[in-house]
Specification:
The structure holds two protein chains of two kinds. In chain A, the strands form three sheets. Chain A has a five-stranded mixed sheet, with helices on both faces. Chain A has a three-stranded antiparallel sheet with strand order 1-10-2. A two-stranded antiparallel ribbon of chain A has the order 3-9. By secondary structure, chain A is α+β, with helices and mostly antiparallel strands. Chain A has helices at residues 2-6, 22-27, 42-47, 89-100, 113-121, 132-140, 173-191, 199-204, 209-215, 227-230, 237-244, 248-254, and strands spanning 33-34, 50-52, 57-59, 61-66, 81-85, 106-110, 127-131, 152-154, 162-164, 167-169. Chain B has helices at 3-8, 15-20, 22-50, 80-113, 118-132, 136-148, 182-210, 216-234, 264-291, 294-302, 307-337, 349-360, 363-392; strands at residues 159-160, 164-166, 171-173, 175-178, 239-242, 245-248, 254-257, 260-262. In chain B, the strands form three sheets. Chain B has a four-stranded antiparallel sheet with strand order 1-2-3-8. In chain B, strand 2 (164-166) and strand 3 form a beta hairpin. In chain B, helix 12 runs antiparallel to helix 13. Chain B is globular, with a radius of gyration of 30 Å. Classes of the chains: A alpha+beta, B alpha+beta. Chains A and B meet through helix 2, helix 4, strand 6 and helix 5 of A and helix 12 of B.
């Protein structure tokens, strides 16, 4: 985002937001864009003065338990105490799904992940529920003092759809467009195999019209479709973004890939490989 | 303005003279100030009218469950208002138990600080100084994460006397279990208490009239015990011992059933609040006792009262008069500090309120509701304490 606006990926101020204050921070103008594990839901989109831009990660809610516990599926959790972050869709999904399945349980709502982790490792909870992407991260970084990642496992079921993505304030359509097209730009770059290593040569000599449109370059002497300019940005803003940050696949493997969540064959694969990552064309 | 300067003033004033008059300048200043206040108020009202102050969302279903319930039976399909009420009840429970315990601890520690026993007074000082000088939030988190969550998991044989369980799921101790006749027995107890009180008053009057000792208090207690015992037999033993025991679900989850159970969350916030407020109360008690003239305790010693009698009969009743107003402050602090329970998963009213905000927004109405609730709770505490204050104050003659 900063690379698109200022040509410098580091020209950004990160403000930590908790699950309980994130939408307030956004609505009050403290932050311009909320990029956290915020699930796109109708009520948040409509009621919270916020607007979801795009889905950057298709997640689903899962449940993590200790490896030595006898739980093999969600229905085994009869009578269990389950840690969850309060005020989240996760909390409501847990309640809805488990009561549908007739699984009687106690949900213990915490302020955030660190508190849930402390209670889970202490044995206060039999299980801990969160988005699977998050749980995979928690498992990868599970404290070595608690026997590391092997001490816990994630149950197979997925309890919900959790489309995650950036959120902006209602009413600022120009800003919405910018955030949206930076996100789409990284997806299109992934689709067209434009990476941070080859972006400079591709911009100098674009192999086809689509790549030329993305990078704000001219293909075969045709006039430049400067879609960046109509966003109020530099015509070549996507060159900066891809050069400094990378395309969707590079961002994924640098972040989510690191915590042991493979991309290939999942919902988060590019659409040409059967996934759901699909951006509208630049025309 | 002295009479002298008024006498010197001429009847008609030039504008310059008018300006020099102090009264004119004061009125002018007042007018400017009033105008500024008026503008601020008008601005605030205009802002308030802009806000969405609609409380309809409270009737929608909560959707989330609440882990701690006391006298309430909220389920996720109940309204958000019911969820919020559950939060209020949890806060009240915390505050009621907290105020009683913190008073006991505070009074004991306050007296202990003045003890001539070196060890006792140093221990009390250590307690007061450590607790008073560290942040409450840190203490509560410490009690939760470093103490109550560090307790062992539930194990059948890990208990005291076969009945006391200390685990990180629950602390459990034996309690009494009541059946349907319990209510009738309560009526017996009430009748017993009333007649005992009446008998004691009569006997005391007799003592005053005749000068003979009629043992008013023992007789009254005996009467109460007899009526209570008769009622207990008549209703067919409405109470039974309820000893906690553990059980295991088919999937290996150990639970404690029966007895009086306290969760680690409630225990941590309660211990945190009670010890913190208790340290301040200890200082109030110490100060109030030291504020009494030395002669009071010397005179009590001179007429041969023991140290215990001096404290109970002479010192504490007088110190109480000085104590109550600052004590009220501490009770109010405890009430307000109970909101720190959000840090450790105890669903009191702020916790439930912020959960509602996260689910559907409406931050302003929810916070107005939270403010109003605390204000109401604090006013109740104040009213009770002020009534108590009026009762114990010296009647001016």
């Amino acid at each position: 985002m900063a690379a698109a606006l200022f040509g410098n990926a580091n020209a950004i101020e990160f403000i930590p937001a908790s699950a309980s204050d994130r939408f307030e921070l956004l609505a009050s103008g403290e932050i311009d864009v909320l990029i956290r594990t915020a699930t796109w839901t109708s009520s948040r989109d409509i009621d919270l003065n916020s607007q979801f831009v795009a889905t950057t990660f298709y997640d689903g809610q899962g449940i993590i338990v200790r490896s030595d516990s006898p739980f093999q599926s969600v229905t085994d959790l009869q009578g269990a105490t389950i840690c969850v972050t309060g005020g989240t869709t996760t909390e409501i999904n847990l309640q809805t799904r488990l009561s549908e399945l007739g699984v009687d349980h106690t949900a213990l709502s915490f302020e955030g992940d660190p508190e849930s982790l402390a209670a889970f490792t202490a044995g206060r909870c039999d299980a801990w529920t969160a988005d699977k992407g998050n749980l995979a991260g928690q498992r990868a970084n599970f404290p070595a003092g608690e026997d590391g990642p092997e001490a816990v496992r994630i149950l197979p079921e997925t309890l919900s759809k959790e489309p995650l993505g950036p959120v902006v304030r209602d009413g600022d359509t120009e800003w919405f467009d910018i955030v949206q097209w930076v996100v789409f730009g990284t997806m299109i770059a992934d689709e067209l195999d434009v990476t941070s290593t080859n972006v400079t040569s591709m911009a100098a000599n674009p192999p086809n019209q689509d790549i030329a449109n993305l990078l704000g370059a001219s293909f075969d002497g045709a006039p430049v479709l400067a879609f960046g300019t109509s966003l109020g940005l530099n015509a070549t803003f996507m060159q900066d973004v891809i050069f400094q940050v990378g395309n969707y696949d590079q961002i994924y493997s640098r972040t989510i890939g690191q915590i042991g969540l493979p991309r290939a064959g999942t919902l988060n694969d590019i659409w040409t490989n059967g996934g759901l990552i699909y951006a509208p064309p630049i025309k | 303005m002295s009479v002298l300067s008024q006498g010197l003033q001429p009847r008609s004033l030039t504008p310059a003279a008018l300006w020099r008059r102090r009264r004119t300048r004061r009125y002018l200043l007042q007018a400017v100030f009033l105008l500024a206040v008026g503008l601020v108020v008008a601005y605030l009202i205009a802002q308030a009218l802009d806000l969405e102050l609609d409380f309809d969302f409270l009737s929608g279903p909560g959707g989330f469950s609440i882990s701690h319930q006391w006298l309430t039976d909220y389920v996720a399909t109940d309204s958000r208002l019911a969820a919020y009420t559950t939060g209020i009840v949890n806060t009240i429970r915390l505050v009621l138990i907290g105020i009683v315990l913190t008073t006991v601890i505070g009074v004991l520690a306050g007296i202990a600080r003045l003890s001539s026993n070196w060890l006792l007074s140093r221990l009390a000082s250590l307690y007061v100084e450590t607790i008073r000088n560290t942040p409450l939030l840190v203490q509560i988190t410490f009690w939760y994460i470093a103490v109550f969550l560090e307790l062992p998991e539930i194990v059948e044989n890990r208990n005291l006397f076969g009945a006391l369980y200390f685990s990180n799921r629950a602390l459990a101790l034996p309690f009494v279990d009541s059946d349907g006749a319990f209510g009738i027995w309560l009526i017996f107890l009430f009748v017993g208490a009333v007649s005992a009180w009446w008998a004691r008053a009569r006997l005391l009057r007799g003592e005053e009239a005749t000068g003979r000792t009629l043992h008013a208090t023992p007789v009254a207690l005996l009467l109460f015990a007899v009526i209570g015992a008769v009622g207990f037999l008549a209703t067919g033993f409405p109470l039974a011992a309820d000893v906690p025991h553990t059980s295991v679900t088919p999937f290996g989850i150990r639970t404690i059933d029966g007895g009086l159970q306290v969760t680690p969350e409630f225990a941590a916030i309660l211990v945190g609040l009670v010890l913190y407020t208790g340290a301040f109360i200890a200082e109030i008690v110490r100060g109030s006792i030291q504020a009494l003239p030395r002669g009071q305790s010397e005179a009590a010693a001179a007429i041969g009262l023991s140290a215990y009698q001096r404290m109970i009969l002479i010192i504490l009743p007088q110190a109480l008069r000085i104590m109550i107003p600052p004590l009220t402050n501490q009770y109010l602090n405890l009430t307000k500090n109970s909101s720190l329970a959000v840090a450790i998963a105890f669903p009191e009213l702020v916790f439930v309120g912020t959960t509602i905000i996260n689910n559907i927004g409406h931050a302003v109405p929810v916070f107005i509701l939270i403010f109003a609730t605390y204000l109401a709770l604090s006013l109740v505490v104040s009213v009770v304490m002020n009534a108590l204050n009026r009762r114990v104050q010296l009647v001016g003659r």
